[in-house]
Specification:
The protein has five helices and eleven strands. It has helices spanning 22-37, 50-61, 69-82, 128-143, 217-232, and strands at 40-48, 88-90, 97-99, 105-107, 109-111, 114-116, 119-120, 157-161, 180-184, 188-193, 198-211. The strands form three sheets. Strands 1, 4, 7, 8, 9, 10 and 11 form a seven-stranded mixed sheet that branches. The protein starts with 21 loop residues before the first helix and ends in a 7-residue tail after the last helix. Bound molecules: oxidized coenzyme A. Residues 67-69, 107-110, 115, 135, 139, 160-164, 172, 184, 186-187, 204 line the site of oxidized coenzyme A. Oxidized coenzyme A is lined by residues 67-69, 107-110, 115, 135, 139, 160-164, 172, 184, 186-187, 204. Belongs to the 2-oxoacid dehydrogenase family. Forms a 24-polypeptide structural core with octahedral symmetry. It comes from Zooshikella ganghwensis. This is Acetyltransferase component of pyruvate dehydrogenase complex.
Length: 239
Amino acid sequence: IPAVPAIDFSQFGPVREEPLTRLRKVGAFNLHRSWLNVPHVTQFEEADITELETFRKAQKEKGVKMTPLPFIIKACVHALKAIPQFNASLNPTGDALIMKDYFHIGFAVDTPDGLLVPVIRDADKKSLTQLAQETVELAAKAKDKKLSPAEMQGACFTISSLGSIGGTAFTPIVNTPEVGILGVSKASMKPVWNGKEFMPRLMLPLCLSYDHRAINGADAARFAAVLAAALGDIRELLL
Ligand code: CAO
């Protein structure tokens, strides 16, 4: 790769040098490695979460703190079961897929020192309430630098939710050796045509990046559609 030339920025104005934390250095290395190794494609989708939001708010009124994240984790498990190519890793020689029969889901947590990705083990065996509690506990541990190495290993698929901050879409980088990552942006009210009229619906932007060596575009479009359908009608998750 052509090197970026070193520049003395002080010739343009005052500067300060701030060393990167160890975590940010490790993160930068992993992101760069993935960016260089993986042919990335990002599939965009929108989920109508109007009904989900009504249910979530009702739970909140009963005292259960629940953001959209536990619903998204459940929907991802549902989609991984429906399209198992996403629950896989390429073997080291790149000529076979290692299919996984477990469902561990990582989620990105923004901490002052950098990005951490704690992992919810066996997310398929956990209720929404358990997932809600566990995400809150793991995010708090990440922010307090108390995650053990085991709590950051073994993910099948990662979720990066920037929805509480904003944005309409972004293109997340796959957390190799996983083959897919779901970016979630901020839900917003939009006029949606129901065949007769425009209705105000709460729409959640989904951005699914994937390793195009392991997954073809049609499967990615199916995965995103399954996710959107499950978030649009959470009864799908009972099937
Ligand atoms: N759209 C609209 N609102 C959303 C939303 C979305 N997609 N996602 C969350 N919100 C709301 C929540 O519902 C909550 O509001 P209420 O209290 O009214 O319910 C509020 O935003 C704050 O949510 P939160 O941030 O406390 O919780 P979370 O479960 O959404 O996220 C965590 C937890 C750990 C994922 C988040 O704190 C975080 O660190 N996100 C950053 C991840 C990141 O940096 N990714 C980039 C990786 S690539 O560089």
